[in-house]
């Protein structure tokens, strides 16, 4: 599926998770590949997403660890947190990873073009830095997305997004965060753990829409107990900068909150503005995402799109998986649809959430009978530490087949557990097979294989 009359067999726009994987794999197959990146290699995940966020999560967890240490006999001396040091160390690590990304692309034999690229036709791409136009047989759009800047909010220009949160000059003593998705919730916990006074404002009834209701509720309670102020069913109506440089965050309910920073985390928009999609015959949906078929093909037959720009499931491993499937489709004569079934995911809040498969509410709609196995307990570490937080584990089981269709964990290391639970749920294991697995003692995870009786059953969606 190549035509030698073009400059490249494959041109990839965007050096993030999806783009880098597609470029590397194609180059390793001997294809003539170029990849254009307008900012930094590694994309959102490495430069201003998953990786810097997780490093900051680790930083923010120390405050509780210091508190917990006393119960185990430790006396921790004077504690001092240096924001500038954290940011500098984090930046050094990101730079290292960026270098690895670049080197891997080069080693595979793809040409790196540090420039913005725009489509000018179905086979033509303009490199905006030089103004040069190049041609390619196949093109992959992997430009990702960016934080929604909320243009409708008066004073939105005063607000930061997750991008700026990674580079603030100082830790804000007080921050208001708008949003209730995982990014808003994670940053609320990061800033709180580092010592900021945090208010989370979310227009919905409960934070973390789409997650299991039980778990959402537990996390909400735990965050409030820590001192994070959560305002659901409210929103920002205006942000005003005061003469002293601080901000007033006006809530729809009429209250005014003083803050050193106001952060918007209200979803992400595809990076398709001025990308030239129309000129190339690539259709966008009403929200600006690239429309693709099951094989990631756009409305232009030789142009494909992977990752966040398609608004399918906006996670790094999903973007990578879509790129791998695309390479099979394009160059292995093996049309391959990405598989979105049973994707494990985590919220790196404190405590964490780890989840895979159906929530209780989703299972209630999908199956006539559902058995719920639920255990809420104090993890052993919280006994001597005196921390009141409990851990919640929940298995959602199809009552007819006894297949475990969902597993949800709230508590320390829930993300790590969800990855392993993902194997079991993906494999379609039954509750009996969970029960037949020997417990590993003493762990919190042993609860997952020792919940012998259902806590309750749902029939036709109703609890019996
Ligand atoms: C704060 C935050 C935390 C996150 N945490 C997690 C997490 O814990 N786990 C998880 O799985 N996912 C997480 N994500 C999501 C994850 O980062 C994305 O799903 C993933 O990066 C998508 O990869 P992508 O290849 O589609 O796009 P991106 O990684 O965004 O890459 C797109 C690249 O294209 C470049 N680009 C854009 N336009 C052009 C152009 N015209 N020409 C040239 N280059 C261009 C951009 O500069 C960028 O480098 C997080 C995201 C954010 C914002």
Detailed description of the structure:
With 464 residues, this protein is an alpha/beta fold. The chain contains 13 helices and 23 strands. The strands form five sheets. Strands 1, 2, 3, 4, 5, 6 and 16 form a seven-stranded mixed sheet that branches. Helix 3 crosses helix 6 (182-194). The chain is globular, with a radius of gyration of 24 Å. Flavin-adenine dinucleotide binds next to helix 1, helix 2, helix 3, strand 4 and helix 9. Flavin-adenine dinucleotide (FAD) binds next to helix 1, helix 2, helix 3, strand 4 and helix 9.
Sequence stretches where pLDDT stays below 50 over 5 or more residues: none
Shape: globular
What is the terminal separation in angstroms?
Answer: 58 Å
Radius of gyration: 24 Å
Task: Briefly note the structural class of the backbone.
Answer: alpha/beta
Number of strands: 23
The distinct bound ligands, ions and cofactors come out as: flavin-adenine dinucleotide
The largest pleated sheet is described as: 7 strands, mixed
Percentage beta strand: 15-25%
Average pLDDT rating:
97
Helix content range of the residues, please? Answer: 25-40%
- Count of separate DSSP helical elements: 13
């Amino acid at each position: 599926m190549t035509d030698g009359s073009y400059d490249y067999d494959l041109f990839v726009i965007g050096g993030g998770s999806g783009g880098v994987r597609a470029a590397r794999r194609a180059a390793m197959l001997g294809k003539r590949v170029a990849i254009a990146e307008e900012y930094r290699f590694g994309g959102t995940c490495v430069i201003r997403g998953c990786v810097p966020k997780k490093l900051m999560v680790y930083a923010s967890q120390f405050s509780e660890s210091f508190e917990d240490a006393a119960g185990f006999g430790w006396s921790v001396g004077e504690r001092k947190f240096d924001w500038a040091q954290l940011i500098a160390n984090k930046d050094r690590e990101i730079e290292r990873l960026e270098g690895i990304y670049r080197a891997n692309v080069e080693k595979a034999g793809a040409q790196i073009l540090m420039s913005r690229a725009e489509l000018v036709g179905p086979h033509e791409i303009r490199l905006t830095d030089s103004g040069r136009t190049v041609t390619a047989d196949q093109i992959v759009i992997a430009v990702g997305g960016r934080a929604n800047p909320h243009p409708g909010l008066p004073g939105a220009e005063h607000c930061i997004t997750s991008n700026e949160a990674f580079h603030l000059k100082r830790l804000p003593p007080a921050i208001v965060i708008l949003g209730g998705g995982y990014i808003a919730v994670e940053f609320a916990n990061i800033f709180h753990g580092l010592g900021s006074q945090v208010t989370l404002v979310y227009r919905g009834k409960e934070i973390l829409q789409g997650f299991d209701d039980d778990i959402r509720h537990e996390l909400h309670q735990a965050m409030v107990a820590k001192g994070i102020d959560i305002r659901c069913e409210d929103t920002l109506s205006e942000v005003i900068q005061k003469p002293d440089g601080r901000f007033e965050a006006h809530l729809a309910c009429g209250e005014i909150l003083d803050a050193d920073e106001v952060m918007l985390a209200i979803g992400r928009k595809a990076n398709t503005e001025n990308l030239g999609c129309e000129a190339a015959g690539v259709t966008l949906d009403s929200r600006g995402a690239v429309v693709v078929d099951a094989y990631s093909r756009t409305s232009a037959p030789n142009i494909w799109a992977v990752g966040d720009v398609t608004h399918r499931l906006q996670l790094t491993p999903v973007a990578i998986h879509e790129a791998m499937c695309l390479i099979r489709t394009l160059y292995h004569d093996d049309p391959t649809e990405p598989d979105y079934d049973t994707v494990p995911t985590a919220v790196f809040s404190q405590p964490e959430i780890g989840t895979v498969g159906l929530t209780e509410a989703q299972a209630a709609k999908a199956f006539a009978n559902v058995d719920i196995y639920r255990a809420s307990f104090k993890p052993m570490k919280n006994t001597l530490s005196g921390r009141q937080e409990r851990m919640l584990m929940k298995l959602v089981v199809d009552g007819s087949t006894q297949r475990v269709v969902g597993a949800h964990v709230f508590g320390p290391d829930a993300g790590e557990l969800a990855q392993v639970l993902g194997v079991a749920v993906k494999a379609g294991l039954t509750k009996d097979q969970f029960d037949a697995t020997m417990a590993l003692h003493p762990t919190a995870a042993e609860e997952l294989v020792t919940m012998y009786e259902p806590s309750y059953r749902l029939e036709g969606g109703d609890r019996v």
